[in-house]
Specification:
The complex is a heterotrimer. Chain A is an alpha+beta fold. Chain A contains 19 helices and 12 strands. Chain A has 3 domains: 110 residues, no CATH class; 115 residues, no CATH class; 170 residues, no CATH class. The longest helix of chain A is centred in the C-terminal third of the chain and has 39 residues. Classes of the chains: A alpha+beta, B mainly alpha, C alpha/beta. The interface between A and C is medium-sized, with 32 and 28 residues. Chain A: This is Spore germination protein.
């Protein structure tokens, strides 16, 4: 009986059972919502149904040249003739006694070359034999590019993209004779990834220049670049670059499938690609690295990674990426190993501060006054007297204003930027303290946090940490230190689940790969780094 | 293959998994529980002896599990002892895992409420913690092992640093005389020193998940050696710093040790802050391990898919954590779990290997 | 974009319950009153309380103890100019009397505008008069059980009223910090004993061993460490004081003090100061047919640092020997005085003889453990000294 009664005593009350029910229901609900959201957004991404897309790309009906000069000319005019920047110059071809038309678009061709060389050649030198379409004759033409196009639509598109197009009476296809030669930005230093020491060259918007920058990194016959056309409406060139004898074939296969499955009508920047090929789009962490630096790309390629370059953007993508890569800069390898190792550790510390700083402040100030050193507690009390807000609100006020300041700083023209920083940072901060809205101690915390987040080399990783910082603050405001730890553990759990193209995001810290630790928190001397990262399972492991 | 689809863990992960499973609430309470039994400063000897006994048992469990590659105890027990008895045994093991998970999370809540969050309702501590655990456990053994690998080095580092600083209190005389009252108290404390290794039963499932099961002995002995060393250090430093008379009456002696000094001029003057942080993280690992084992047991015994079992386990563990009415109940539960663990130690590996050897011999004779 | 709006809404809904339930344990640090010092005195209503009681504000109690806490920092009204606000002290002492320390604390809660927290308690001063009436276990039970108060809090005894030690005439000084900081002088003189923290106190009380607590004397708004108060282990009461020199000798004997000076009078009856550089003591117990005796060896190294003798003392071995002789005589005298106090006046072992015996002869210790203080006072203790004079400071004088 006594056993029974002691059992009865220990049966929890009904409220505990209710809590148990809630404890059960919430995760189930959250999972279902997550799944729903995932499948909902997943529809737009169309990773699996690649067949239909490819067919839809190739479906537009072919409209071949008829061979009759007048009809073809009419067909071209009717399709693109209404463009005011299209120039069509009809010219007689003397030796052939035929007519021809040269098409080009404003600003895309060197006018002088067109006038002097090409037209002169066509009008006075071109013979029947040269343009008759026999195989040999093409080699005799004085153009370095000449391709035949048998489809009017493709001809039109190419002309509008900037090629010089030629239509000649009696030849049943169009000729494209010059590459587009529009104005370009000159190659400049990469803005978002400045270095003190190292190459100052950055990618530009032209794909061919970018690939040439990669080629110019060194002599190799193993650097392979494969070109793809992407986009359903406005098509663009995309290049996959990798080292043929290093990259893991499975990884290459995976990247190729994902790239060929891209489903978007236009890809304005490589950011589009990043979002469409990443593994988990609900994660706050980026799973693809973007860079403007050719040296960074080539180093990644030598490690066995794959680069994705898109026409029209200076940002190349590198896959797969791990968390530690986001905190490394190429300079780590250019400087000697001792300073670079120390700087790297400093960056890890800064990342931690950027993520946890305000959360720790809230939990210590509002929950655990007993964990602060006495002297510090005293000075905090003295400075916080008269602050009317609870810690969370106080931190939010300052953090949000810093974020606004940062956002405003990007928009402002360069000469005003620093002035803005001074006004915002110094004057508002000081005034807020004077007015008693925030405590001076908090200003220190927020400033250190902000500076720490600037020290992260990859801009987008810094943004991630900034977002997560706010979540951490909410956890801290809810459960103090316990909440902060919970937040950290959740983050760890999430990161360990995350993969970038099959590589666990936290490698080599976990799963633990001792050999890759040489290049994690510290950078071993170069002579020790004779092997490629084990996590990439490269074809040949030794660097030689 | 570039992408690994099999849910296997490496040798080092297996070792860390075992370490994190064993290293739990004990690190805070163990000096008291053992000293209470012994009342002499020789507890460190007991820990050593108890550790060797546990190592032997683990060796036995590994050898047994290696006979059935790729199978956990829930799967191979049936092949040894027959369907029904093994089902009962394994259910007992699952209940044991659930109770331990509940116990760990309850002690966590007690410490948190006592030192960190006075005034917060207990469910507000327990439920978010279980949810976070659920999120991790849903990722499978690989994710769990990876989180363990992150937390583990931090734990070791902070623990050693804290103990190092406590050297200022350390008085070697507190650990003397050695064997002043003879060997008897050492044997007396043996039971409670075996109890601190609660959780080493996971070896019987862990071996099945190993990528290279032939290295299981190395991994498991390595995995138990770390808590073994840490427990040893803990008891030496706590008793050396506080003396047994203070330890006997202290609810959380290890925290008391760290709270007994301040490092003025250091940024964290009070080391209980980092200690509590790593202990909470350690408890999370510990809890997730038992959570995972219990879910795995149910799903393998009854051939359910594991995801719904994990969800179903949430309220069960919550209730298990809420059953004790007071901290005395919690410690009573801890003792009960310890005895149960001892019984399971005897029943599962010893009994199963006994039957297994008998059967094998019988087979040979028949042939 | 549509999908992000969905995501945001989802997050908002998830956050809603958290915002609604709020943060239970959240207490802003500036709204709390940290007390850093605590004094426990004989029970008598504090002056303010007397006034309250006259007006009928009372509750049932027997006034067994009076507790004073020191709250820092004082709330200051923010002024535009940063100049000091005037004569305000940086601390606030609140006293109350009653039968339970916690009850007194809760009584403070009906008087103060901020909840008090004990995380930053640095020192507890207990009046020796109170310890005559109450045992130290009773008085410190609450502080040992409480979860806020850290076991690193230092415990002292005061000769007069404990409350007075928490007052200071210095304007910008917090007396409790002052007391806590005085410990740093241990490197200069062994008159500052090893501080007894709550965790140590707990262990000492549990073993029923006698022990000493540093004695605090206050006067004229200043405080001094003056020797030590002896707590008798078996009863838990205060039984008497050791004076400063005794305390110093005790520290040397127990290997806890390594600094200090020995002042003696030389052959011309002029003061001579010997600065101790190292001091090692070794207590060896002997058990001979049930008779317990101890041998103590004190090995001292030091230098001659000050002499008032008109005739210079030349730096020779001869004079080194001679000075050592004088120092040894003085030390012997001091130690004998201490031993007399311990063995005959108070009959307590506070110098760790028992512990040495327990380590070397555990079985003998078990028999005598119960009334060790008595046994100790009957045991024979022999001293040997080993005094070295290493140098004469930065002077080298010829004969």
């Amino acid at each position: 009986m006594s056993f029974l009664s002691s059992v009865v005593v220990h049966i929890p009350s009904w409220s505990v059972f209710c809590q148990a029910l809630i404890a059960l229901l919430v995760p189930i609900l959250v999972t279902r919502m997550y799944k729903k959201l995932h499948s909902f957004v997943g529809n737009g991404r169309n990773l699996e149904t690649n067949k239909t897309i490819q067919s839809s790309v190739s479906t537009p009906e072919v409209m071949p040249f008829s061979g009759d000069y007048q009809t073809d000319l009419q067909a071209i005019y009717s399709r693109i003739g209404s463009n005011s920047d299209l120039h069509a110059r009809e010219l007689p071809i003397k030796k052939l006694n035929a007519r021809g038309t040269l098409f080009c678009v404003d600003g895309m061709q060197n006018e002088r070359v067109l006038n002097m060389r090409i037209m002169e050649f066509l009008m006075f030198e071109a013979t029947d034999g040269l343009l008759a379409g026999t195989v040999k004759s093409e080699e005799l033409l004085p153009f370095n590019n000449l391709s035949k196009v048998s489809d009017i639509d493709i001809f039109n598109r190419s002309v509008l993209f900037g090629h010089a197009g030629l239509l000649i009476e009696g030849i049943p296809h169009g000729l494209l004779i010059e590459f587009p030669n529009g104005t370009n930005r000159s190659i400049t230093e990469p803005v978002s990834e400045a270095l003190i020491r190292g190459p100052r060259i950055g990618f530009s918007e032209v794909l061919s220049e970018n690939t040439s920058l990669l080629r110019r990194q060194g002599f190799s016959d193993q650097l392979e670049m494969k070109s793809y056309r992407v986009g359903t409406r406005l098509q663009k060139d995309l290049v996959l670059a990798y080292m043929k004898d290093i990259v893991n074939p499975d990884l290459l296969q995976e990247v190729q499938t994902r790239v060929s499955n891209l489903n978007a009508d236009f890809l304005a920047d490589s950011g589009y690609i990043e979002q469409l090929i990443e593994d988990n789009y609900l994660s706050p962490f980026q799973q693809v690295q973007n860079t403007e630096r050719p040296d960074r790309v080539i180093n990644a390629l030598l490690e066995g990674r794959i680069a994705i370059l898109l026409d029209g953007t200076p940002f190349a993508l590198i896959v797969p990426v791990t968390f530690s890569m986001l905190l490394q800069t190429p300079e780590d390898y250019y400087e000697r190993w001792i300073p670079s190792s120390l700087l790297r550790m400093l960056r890890f510390g800064a990342a931690f501060v950027a993520l946890m700083g305000p959360a720790l402040y809230i939990s210590l100030i509002a929950f655990h006054p007993g964990l602060i050193p006495t002297e510090l507690a005293l000075s905090i009390i003295e400075t916080r007297q008269g602050v009317p807000f609870p810690a969370l609100i106080e931190v939010l006020i300052l953090e949000v204003s810093i974020e606004i300041l940062r956002e405003a700083g990007i928009r402002l023209p360069k000469p005003i930027g620093p002035a803005m920083g001074i006004v915002g940072g110094l004057i508002i901060g000081d005034a807020a303290v004077q007015a008693g809205i925030v405590s001076p101690f908090l200003v220190i915390v927020v400033a250190v946090t902000a500076i720490s987040s600037f020290s992260i080399p990859t801009y987008s990783a810094g943004v991630t940490l900034r977002i997560l910082r706010f979540i951490g603050m909410i956890f801290a405001a809810f459960l103090g230190m316990f909440g902060t730890i919970l937040f950290f553990l959740l983050l760890c759990s999430h990161l360990t689940k995350l993969k970038s193209f099959g590589v666990p995001y936290l490698t080599p810290a976990s799963p633990f790969r001792a050999t890759d630790w040489k290049d994690l928190f510290f950078r071993a001397p170069l002579s020790l780094m004779k092997r490629r990262p084990a996590m990439l399972k490269t074809r040949n492991n030794k660097r030689k | 293959m570039f992408t690994r689809t099999d849910d296997k863990i490496t040798t080092s992960q297996a070792a860390v998994f075992l370490t994190n499973t064993v290293l739990g609430a004990g690190i805070l309470t163990m000096p008291r529980s053992i000293t209470q039994e012994m009342r002499t400063p020789d507890s460190w000897l007991t820990i050593l002896v108890g550790g060797f006994i546990v190592m032997l048992t683990i060796l036995l469990m590994v050898k047994l599990s290696q006979q059935f590659p790729g199978q956990t105890v829930f799967q191979y027990a049936g092949r040894i002892a027959g369907r029904l008895p093994s089902l009962l045994l394994c259910l007992l093991l699952v209940v044991y895992f659930i109770l331990v998970a509940g116990f760990e999370i309850r002690s966590l809540a007690e410490v948190t409420l006592f030192f960190l969050l006075e005034g917060t309702p207990i469910w507000a501590v327990i439920i978010p913690f279980i949810w976070a655990g659920t999120y991790l456990v849903l990722g499978g053994i690989n994710s769990i092992a990876r989180v363990f690998q992150i937390v583990f080095p931090i734990t070791i580092l902070v623990l050693l640093v804290s103990f190092g600083f406590s050297l200022r209190l350390f008085d070697f005389n507190n650990l003397r005389p050695v064997l002043g009252s003879g060997v008897l108290p050492v044997l007396h404390g043996l039971k409670s020193s075996v109890l601190v290794y609660t959780g080493s039963e996971v070896v019987m499932t862990l071996v099945a998940f190993m990528q290279h099961p032939q290295q299981a002995v190395k991994a498991m002995i390595g995995g138990i050696a770390i808590p073994f060393a840490l427990y040893f250090l803990t008891i030496v430093f706590v008793i050396g710093g506080l003396s047994i008379d203070s330890v006997i009456n202290s609810t959380w002696p290890t925290i008391d040790l760290i709270r007994s000094f301040e490092i003025t001029g250091f940024f964290v003057e009070r080391l209980e802050f980092p200690l509590m942080v790593i202990w909470l993280m350690q408890m999370f690992c510990n809890f997730c391990s038992f959570f995972f084992q219990a879910s795995l047991g149910i799903s393998q015994l009854f051939k359910f898919s594991v995801t719904p079992v994990i969800y179903g386990m949430v309220p069960v563990i919550f209730l298990a954590a809420m059953v004790p009415n007071s901290i005395q109940d919690v410690f009573a539960l801890g003792d009960a779990i310890g005895s149960m663990g001892l019984a399971l130690f005897l029943m599962l590996p010893v009994l199963l290997s006994f039957i297994w050897i008998l059967r094998k011999k019988g087979l040979k004779q028949h042939v | 974009m549509y999908r992000y709006r969905q995501l945001k809404m989802l997050f908002l809904y998830l956050l809603l319950p958290f915002v609604l339930t709020g943060c239970w344990s959240s207490k802003e640090i500036e709204d709390l009153g940290m007390y850093t010092g605590m004094a426990i005195d004989i029970g008598q209503p504090a002056p303010v309380e007397k006034e309250f009681e006259m007006k009928g504000a009372e509750y049932s109690k027997h006034n067994k103890v009076m507790t004073t806490i020191q709250i820092v920092p004082m709330k200051t009204v923010r002024t535009k100019d940063k100049s000091n606000t005037g004569t305000n002290k940086p601390y606030l002492n609140v006293s109350g009397s009653g039968d339970s320390i916690l009850e007194i604390f809760r009584q403070f809660s009906v008087r103060l505008d901020q909840p008090i927290i004990g995380h930053h308690l640095k020192v507890i001063v207990i009046s020796s008069k109170l310890l005559r009436k109450q045992t130290i276990e009773q008085v410190t039970d609450f502080v040992l059980r409480d979860n806020d108060i850290r076991p690193s809090t230092k415990v002292y005894i005061s000769q007069g009223e404990a409350k007075e030690t928490l007052e200071s005439s210095e304007r910008n000084e917090v007396p409790s910090f002052h007391i806590a900081g005085m410990y740093r002088n241990q490197m200069r003189t062994s008159k500052v004993l090893d501080s007894v923290t709550l965790s140590k106190l707990d262990a000492l009380m549990k073993t029923k061993k006698s022990f000493v607590l540093q004695n605090l004397v206050s006067g004229g708004g200043e405080i001094e460490f003056s020797g030590a108060g002896i707590i008798k282990g078996s009863s838990g009461h205060w039984i008497g004081n050791l004076n400063q020199e005794d305390a110093e000798c005790l520290a040397w004997m127990t290997n806890n003090g390594k600094a200090g000076t020995i002042k003696a009078y030389d052959w011309d009856n002029q003061p001579l100061a010997y600065e101790i550089k190292s001091m090692k003591s070794k207590i060896t117990p002997f058990v001979n047919e049930g008779k317990i005796s101890f041998k103590v060896n004190l090995a001292v190294e030091g230098r001659l640092i000050e002499t008032w003798n008109k005739n210079n003392i030349p730096s020779t071995n001869y004079y080194a020997e001679k000075t050592s002789q004088i120092v040894e005589e003085k030390l012997t005298q001091m130690i004998q005085r201490l031993m007399k106090k311990l063995q005959s006046t108070y009959k307590v072992d506070v110098a760790g003889f028992g512990q040495r015996l327990a380590i070397v002869y555990p079985s003998v210790w078990k028999q005598v453990k119960e009334d060790w203080d008595e046994t100790f006072s009957r045991s024979e203790v022999n001293f040997t000294y080993d005094i070295k004079l290493t140098d004469f400071g930065s002077f080298t004088e010829k004969e």
